[in-house]
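During the second half of the funding period, the structural biology subgroup turned its attention to how the target accommodates small molecules. The most pressing case was uridine-5'-diphosphate, which had performed well in the primary screen but for which no bound structure existed. We therefore specified the complex as follows and requested a full 3D prediction, including the ligand pose.
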Amino acid sequence: MKRNARIALLVLLAAGLWLALKPTLGNRRFTFLPFRWSEYFDLMDFWLNLGAFAMLGMTVWLAFGTLEKAFSRLWMMTGGITLLNILLELVQSSIPGRAMDMADVWAGLIGCVGGIGCGMVLQLFSIGKKSGGKEPQVLFLDQTGRLGGAELMLLDIAAARAADSEVILFHDGEFRTALENAGVKTTVQRLSEEASTVDKQAGLKSVLRSLPGILQLMLRIVQAARSFDVVYANTAKALIIGGPAARLAGRPLIFHLHDIIADGHFSLLNQQALVHCANFCAQSVIANSEATKDAFIACGGRAELCVVIPNGFRIPTERTAATQVSSLRASLGIPPQAWTVLMAGRLAHWKGQHVLLEALKAVPAAHAILLGDALFTDEDREYARGLHAQAEAPELAGRVHFAGFQKETMPYFDLADAVVHASVHPEPFGRVIVEGMLACKPVIAARAGGAAEIVQHEQTGLLVAPGSAGELAEALLRLKNEPSLACDIAQRAQQMAQDIYALNAVQEKIEAVIRQTASRELSQETETAANQPLQQVA
Ligand code: UDP
């Protein structure tokens, strides 16, 4: 802290203490003032106490408060100062003719909390400044340490601009390791236990319980955000916490929308919270498909914020060697010639692995690999246990292979004869569909959401009704029994995927949004500016 600031603090502290101690200086207020005046101030006792303790609270906060430990310090300081206040009142009550005044205690308490609040605000605005560098400095936020589809996309975006980016994760995990291996500076700012358990379906009670944890993390992000030009929220919780934080820090916000904001994915309360937060805090919303964009708008989201940019993928130049594929087959216990279908992605009810297992019963001798794990909730873990039980059915015995979560997925795609996507709710994008296409495998996908945008039925894949094991079984039998159809579809799809989903092109579009958003001065933002449509970059 600078010398002048320290002196100013000491002066404030002295003034605060003097005002707080005034009752002990005698039987009157402001003993150096004429008696008349003193009586007048006596009437204002409540307000004087409030002001005195506000000054004291603010001074103590500025001297010792840190935003990282905002809540614990707030309670500690308020408690300490209130004790001091009560002590002063007790001393005062021992002076003949004066009694303990509870109104003064309350005034002190209110003043102290208000003063600490002012101290926090002053601290927030005195830290960090914009980079002023050539490339916009971006602070990415993501709620999880696990590697889901949204995180894999962020990994590629952040790695491509590692020198000008930092990532804050709300949980530790393999995602942090992957980011650090890619040279991206990453820190973990933990979200409290209560706030972590709030999921997409959460109701009011659990949201309220999680508030202290959320506010604390928000303050830390405000502090961090002030050293960047743009804040980029990559997940729903990252938006809810990072959106207000970006606003408080005076930085523009990009929200990368990887979810369909609708029933089945989010509770009504969460839908409203997300959309209002995006409307109020974000300067740009990157939707990963028309389906996510449409759902956002249908829920009340501002259309002019949105731009649709699909996920991007590295186009592999080499595929897995045949020997490696054979040994993978053997290690999974799949016979050498068995027709095999791959379903990749986390194990969760809405992803529909159970639909594939049901369909597989009608496809004799076919094997299925389930690649992925239950990543996020207890419900998912329970579902995963159910899948293992389902695979024990006599009609499926030995034909379902659980491969767990694998960082290197390409060998599994190369092993498969077909790739299945079977989400029972509309898929926001469906990375595994494009990955199957790039591996030159015929893909069957559920006809809804982003999946239906990627796959052109009969041309670049087969579409089936979501949740229909019967239709899925039929499509599987077609691909199994008509190898030339399977081959044609796979080749057309591979060409299309290489043309549309190449990572470089997608990264350029995202960079354009970042530059465009960074160039908007938030301080000058008015309703009119915020309502200006985002220039199309897709
Ligand atoms: N994935 C992976 N390892 C696994 C299973 C899946 O890396 O064991 C990857 C998969 O290749 C895909 C992503 O996880 O890139 C899942 O993305 P998708 O859009 O299909 O689903 P999301 O997880 O985003 O709902």
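Two results from this model are relevant to the next phase. Residues 522-533 have pLDDT under 50 and may be disordered. The chain is about 55% helix and 10% strand.
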